[in-house]
Amino acid sequence: AQSVTQLDSQVPVFEEAPVELRCNYSSSVSVYLFWYVQYPNQGLQLLLKYLSGSTLVKGINGFEAEFNKSQTSFHLRKPSVHISDTAEYFCAVSGIYNQGGKLIFGQGTELSVKP
Amino acid sequence: GAVVSQHPSRVICKSGTSVKIECRSLDFQATTMFWYRQFPKQSLMLMATSNEGSKATYEQGVEKDKFLINHASLTLSTLTVTSAHPEDSSFYICSATETADTQYFGPGTRLTVL
Fold first, then answer.
1. What confidence tens digit (pLDDT) does each residue in A41-77 have?
2. Distance (Å, rounded) from C-alpha A56 to C-alpha B66?
3. Nearest chain A alpha carbon to B48
């Protein structure tokens, strides 16, 4: 079984500042890792994913994340945020042998970018 | 690519009526579709997993007779909330996967039961 912990429920930050959204996971098997973004009253949009290979993953909108197996972390970063990045961010994990790719989500982190 | 649509985006119904929500993969064939429920300011709760041509697999605590799922084709799954009550009001989101590694999500359906 897997579990995901997003360490911060809310992250306020000023525009053009860097941001890191933290995600730790627990699993007894190898995993795939994902970050999704949700804007108000919308579904989830895939930001980036780690399946294998390079541990530094680049995604859309200037976001990147680094898979750290020893620390079981997959933190999301952006060097300079915009007002439009204000949204809810979800980290998710699935066991690579899970039939159908069932996802386990973290509790979400609300990123609020202020001018 | 990898676009998933949901219809309707918003529905208001009276208590006791049934509501059907459609989930379609527009540019790929979805081997598996998932249905989630999301309460305000909370994460997604997986309700069920559906595979084309077979019965859906429901998560523990989800009433299968209440939430009927039909996966009629590789591009369409439907969720029917039967005899809806106010406590069924929620945001319902579907996702679809072509390969087992990545889910693509629909825009969600806001259900309000009066």
1. 888 999 999 998 999 999 999 999 999 999 999 999 9
2. 43
3. A102
Helix (H, G, I), strand (E, B) or coil at A86: coil
Nearest to A41 among B32, B43, B110 (CB): B110
Taking CB atoms and an 8 Å limit, are A43 and B4 in contact across chains?
yes
Number of H helices, E strands in chain A: 0, 12
Q: Whats the size of chain B, residue-wise?
A: 114
A52 Cβ neighbours under 8 A, 6+ residues apart: none
What residues contact B31, with CB distance under 8 A and at least 6 apart? Answer: A100, B51, B52, B74, B97, B98, B99, B100
Is A34 in CB contact (< 8 Å) with chain B? yes
